[in-house]
Design goal:
There is one protein chain. The chain is mainly α. It has one domain (23-112): Winged helix-like DNA-binding domain superfamily/Winged helix DNA-binding domain (Arc Repressor Mutant, subunit A, Orthogonal Bundle). It contains 6 helices and 3 strands; from the N terminus they run H-H-H-E-H-H-E-E-H. A 3-stranded antiparallel sheet has the order 1-3-2. Helix 4 (50-57) packs across helix 5. The longest helix is centred in the C-terminal third of the chain and has 24 residues, at 93-116. The two termini are 30 Å apart.
Length: 124
């Protein structure tokens, strides 16, 4: 049986269509291992150039540069230019918070699994 009051409250609190589309786009950016490595490198290393990011991520500079273009277009990273060099960093504390929470979540999950031991195949 549907609870119309609860449904109305939830619908009123949900983000609008444009915000949902923006969220989908940002989360889809995080669905690529190379981009996640780049974002994590920036989380740990702060501002970095393409060549340092490529070395840190064990990737080609062209692949890192392409990924950075996508991340920059979606306001995940920003760039600072000094002469011919470009230095990238996470766009703001919100991106850092999102990454920190995701890493903490998976670290917490891994720690819980380690304490419990491997899943019991008979439990299915």
């Amino acid at each position: 049986m549907v609870d119309p009051e609860r449904v109305a409250m939830v619908r009123a609190a949900m983000p609008g269509g444009e915000v949902v589309e923006d969220l989908v786009e940002v989360f889809s950016l995080l669905a690529d291992p190379g981009r996640v490595r780049i974002i994590t490198a920036l989380l740990e290393g702060g501002e970095m150039c393409v060549c340092d990011l490529a070395a840190a991520c064990a990737s080609r500079e062209s692949a890192v540069s392409h990924a950075l273009r996508l991340l920059r277009a979606n306001r995940v990273v920003t760039v600072r230019r000094t002469g011919r060099m470009a230095y990238y960093r996470l766009a703001d504390s919100h991106v850092r918070l999102l990454l920190d929470l995701a890493l903490t979540h998976f670290g917490h999950e891994d720690a819980q699994t380690a304490r419990k031991g491997p899943p019991d195949p008979e439990a299915r």
